[in-house]
Design brief:
The protein is 35% helix and 22% strand. It is α+β, with helices and mostly antiparallel strands. Helix 13 crosses helix 14 (484-498).
């Protein structure tokens, strides 16, 4: 055998030795993975956490015709106020703490209420609260525009996103509240009013991030931006240096369109390093309409992500791929392409388990301190932690129950757990210790997730809560709009205030 053939064989053998183990591993993940996403729970029966099984008395699909929907809902709210019943409001029901559920109550299925129109000159999208971002992004894409601020994924509804006051990869931005010009609100009397920064200002601030407790959001006016193209640029950093490096990379940088970070959860170097990914604007003339394609969601991305469950090798493999290939593997993608990915691409397909989200908002300068405080907590409980994403949020100027009173980094944590009482109890214990760590750093936790925080933790994180629920009682004295979040936290506060 000549040297050239020997060299070729050695190269092939080396390539096989490198590629074969991850290929065989991912093939095994694929073999055990479910063939399709689990069926979403029906409105009023559960939510995305699959740990809030309840039964509402009636589910009312809202008419898709705006005028008919307003007549339908006004009559229903007046009737419910008279009868002493309760209404909860459901969109994509992606919250996890019973925010869209009231036991034996009436639940509104808002998803049919999804009509939209665009004023291109003013860059204002008028949209029904039931519309999902998966409907909005393609609509805007056809017209050369994109969403200003939304979650990373497109499964959620506009009304739900506003009710939790979401945020995303849109760096150096306030939450979604900052993009809301106005909305029409059905209040507990059955009347419909307009809320904005100049009209019904108090209700405007209470409803944004108000978890559906003050009325039904109907139509919303949202500011939109031009669609544009980005390429990902990774930067490696230690968590202790994250705040400094992040601001060096993003402040006063017109070429940065979006930015986010990931903290390593791989056992080989657990929480010891991070990646800051800049999505940098790509100059040049490119089409900004019809940029979405009919590509199927990436099976490989799903397998790499789900391969981390119960596998140190899988977690280490994912981190290695993120470090060496990046989020977009060097592709130039439009803003709409990046924001048009469904969360259920990564979700559990095992009916006996579920994926649980946490989020902690930490003052920017104290991010490294929180990582140091939280790492031993994870090592104590050994949860199945799949991901930590980091996103910065500028101070919120609009909402009453604000979580960003200063610039913060939001750390989004995704866990996998069995759907059992024992697993839920263990998650509750872990959650409370993480909340204490966040509070010790001057931070707080996000309210759309499992109701594991104690009453004392809730009050320390949101000292405005007693006044928030007092205003809830003022605007809704008969308790027309209620949900499990209110029953868990609001009702005890109001009862204590009445003693």
């Amino acid at each position: 055998m000549n040297k050239a053939k020997l060299l070729l064989l050695l190269v092939c053998a080396a390539f096989a030795a490198v590629v074969a183990p991850p290929a065989l591993f991912l093939a095994n993940v694929w073999r055990h993975d479910g063939s399709a996403p689990l069926t979403a729970p029906a409105p009023g029966t559960d939510d995305a956490g699959h740990m809030n099984t309840r039964h509402s008395a009636r589910v009312i699909p809202v008419s898709s015709d705006p005028a008919e929907a307003e007549r339908q809902l006004s009559a229903l709210v007046r009737q419910t106020a008279i009868s002493g019943g309760h209404i909860s409001i459901s969109g994509a029901h992606h919250s996890m703490g019973g925010h869209t559920i009231y036991p034996d109550g009436v639940v509104l299925d808002m998803l049919p209420f999804n009509r939209m129109s665009l004023d291109a000159e003013r860059r204002i999208l008028t949209v029904g609260a039931g519309a999902r971002w998966s409907e909005i992004v393609p609509y805007l894409d056809q017209r050369g525009f994109a969403v200003s601020v939304m979650q990373t994924n497109n499964d959620f509804s506009v009304g739900g996103s506003i009710s939790v006051n979401c945020h995303g990869w849109q760096n150096d931005s306030q939450p979604i509240c900052s993009t809301v010009e106005s909305f029409r609100l059905l209040i507990p009397t059955g009347d419909i009013i307009r809320c904005s920064r100049t009209e019904n200002q108090e209700l405007f601030s209470l409803v944004l991030g108000g978890y559906g407790l003050f009325g039904v959001i109907l139509q919303v006016e949202l500011r939109v931006v031009a669609n544009e193209y980005y390429v990902a640029e990774p930067h490696f950093v230690k968590p202790a240096d994250y705040n400094r490096v992040y601001h060096e990379l993003t402040r006063n940088r017109a070429d940065v369109g979006m930015a986010y970070g990931r903290i390593n959860v791989a056992p080989s170097s657990f929480m010891e390093n991070a990646i800051i990914t800049l999505l940098k604007r790509v100059p040049g003339d490119r089409p900004t309409t019809q940029t979405l394609t009919d590509e199927k969601p990436s099976l490989l991305k799903r397998l790499v992500f789900r391969g981390g469950i119960g596998s140190d090798y899988g977690k280490n493999l994912r981190w290695w791929l993120e470090k060496n290939m990046g989020e977009t593997a060097g592709k130039v993608l439009s803003r709409n392409q990046i924001m048009n990915e469904p969360a259920n691409l990564y979700s559990s397909r095992d009916p006996a388990s579920t994926d649980i989200l946490h989020e902690y908002f930490i003052p920017a300068a104290r991010l490294g301190e929180f990582v140091e405080k939280s790492r031993p907590i994870f090592l104590k409980y050994h949860p199945e932690l799949l991901n930590i994403t980091v996103r910065n949020v500028e101070p919120d100027q609009d909402t009453f129950m604000r979580y960003a009173r200063e610039e913060v980094f939001g750390l989004v944590l995704l866990f996998h757990q069995p759907r059992t009482p024992a697993a839920d109890e263990a998650m509750a214990a872990l959650t409370r210790e993480l909340i204490d760590a966040a509070l010790a750093c001057g931070g707080r936790y996000y309210l759309p997730y499992r109701p594991h925080a104690t009453a004392a933790q809730f009050l320390q994180a949101y000292p405005q809560a007693p006044e928030f629920f007092a205003k809830k009682r003022q605007y809704d004295p008969n308790g027309v709009f209620e949900n499990l979040f209110f029953l868990n936290y609001g009702q005890p506060l109001l009862a204590a205030a009445a003693r």
